[in-house]
Design a protein that fits this description.
Helix content is about 45%, strand content about 10%. It is α/β, with parallel strands linked by helices. It starts with 11 loop residues before the first strand and ends in a 42-residue tail after the last helix.
């Protein structure tokens, strides 16, 4: 038996994700949840949902999360970490509020939270914290004592996140025809967000160009490109590009778009490319449609050989990284100074989101931060 690991003060881990439909009848209600308060007509949501209908109305994200849950429970058991793992979603079953209600009924009082978003931004961090606060307020309104929740730090540069993706790039390069492999470019891709949101991502002070969201992605891209170069002996040119834009045309969003960049590469005579979805933890709809369907179709139209490398998903190294993050935070909460694993130039992220971090247009209460009403 492994030596027991102590996660005190935590008595549970919550895997907090976005959620997705699991059948055709789920698609429009799911999109109504995602867009609640924006006044988008149902007919428009049916149009938006066509991406899901192409795949029988099923998003792969829920099965990806089930696989990650299994990987986490397996890793924790094998390493003597007696910590139950729960799962809740922001926009579909199992809903976050229902899961927190279950955790409270099970007597869980101090919960570590892993969000399936690795980077700083409003939609990737603050909005999860707002939903946590809203769910806890609901429990309080129901006469339940809400547990304390602590969101684990951003893990974009943790070795357990970076190393599986590096391995995925190497595997994808090996799949390319040998005559174009050496000249292949690496195309690192992530979800586009409004430029204003990118510029205000991360703590209010100390911004560099592009804000934390762009800085963090650029650092991960550089880490992977350098590691690939060290292992292959070839320095592959690379660029960070964006995908999955969903906003109004008059609002500036991060560019270039992945398909526009593929056209640019083809026009410059680049012989091949590997698309590297560093902005995504698993192969959910933005990867399945925007890369594997739309971007591949564009590459085929251009005659540009492309491959798409794997996300970390339920890789055992990522599960081990989550265990590491839980124990690191537990040690810090206990007044100890734990080792904090991080690669690259930016170092480990903060445990507690500062006041003003990744602000929203309309401020709402947010849990697990310096301004949390549930600290």
């Amino acid at each position: 038996m492994p030596e027991a690991l102590d996660a005190t003060p935590y008595d549970a881990l919550l895997l907090l994700s976005f959620g997705g439909p699991e059948g055709p009848d789920d698609v429009v209600p799911f999109l109504e949840n995602v867009t609640r308060g924006r006044g988008i007509p149902k007919e428009r949501l049916k149009e938006v949902g066509q991406h899901y209908f192409l795949f029988d109305g099923i998003s792969p994200i829920n099965d990806q999360n089930r696989a990650l849950l299994d990987a986490l429970r397996k890793d924790f058991a094998e390493h003597g970490l007696d910590l139950p793992v729960y799962w809740g979603n922001r926009n579909w079953a199992p809903y976050l509020t229902d899961t927190l209600r279950e955790m409270a009924a099970d007597g869980r009082r101090r919960i570590a939270v892993l969000a399936t978003s690795a980077y700083a931004s409003y939609s990737g961090c603050r909005q999860y914290r707002e939903d946590l606060a809203g769910a806890l307020a609901t429990l309080e309104d129901e006469g339940l004592e809400p547990p304390r929740v602590d969101k684990l730090r951003h893990y974009f540069n943790h070795p357990g996140f970076v190393e599986p993706m590096t391995e995925g790039v190497l595997a994808s390069l090996a799949e390319l025809p040998e005559d174009v492999r050496a000249g292949a470019h690496l195309v690192f891709t992530t979800h586009s967000i409004p430029v204003a949101a990118a510029d205000t991502s991360g703590p209010a002070e100390g911004h560099g160009d592009g804000g934390a969201y762009v800085r963090q992605h650029l650092d991960v891209a550089r880490l992977i490109a350098e590691a690939v170069g060290e292992q292959t002996g070839i320095e592959h040119p690379w660029r960070l590009v964006y995908q999955s834009r969903s906003g109004a045309p008059h609002i500036p969003w991060l560019e270039p778009d992945i398909c526009d960049h593929l056209e640019e590469l083809h026009g410059a005579g680049v012989p091949a490319a590997v698309m590297v979805p560093i902005g995504f933890v698993s192969d959910h709809m933005e990867v399945l449609y925007d890369l594997d369907t739309e971007a591949r179709a564009k590459a085929a139209e251009l005659g540009l050989p492309v491959r798409r490398s794997a996300t970390v998903g339920a890789d055992p190294r990522f599960a081990a990284a989550v265990r590491d993050l839980v124990l690191e935070r537990a040690a810090a909460e206990g007044g100890r100074q734990p080792a904090r694993c991080a690669l690259g130039a930016l170092g480990p992220s903060h445990d507690l989101c500062p006041v003003g971090c990744c602000p929203a247009r309309t401020p709402k209460p947010a849990a697990a931060g310096a301004d949390s009403p549930y600290a």
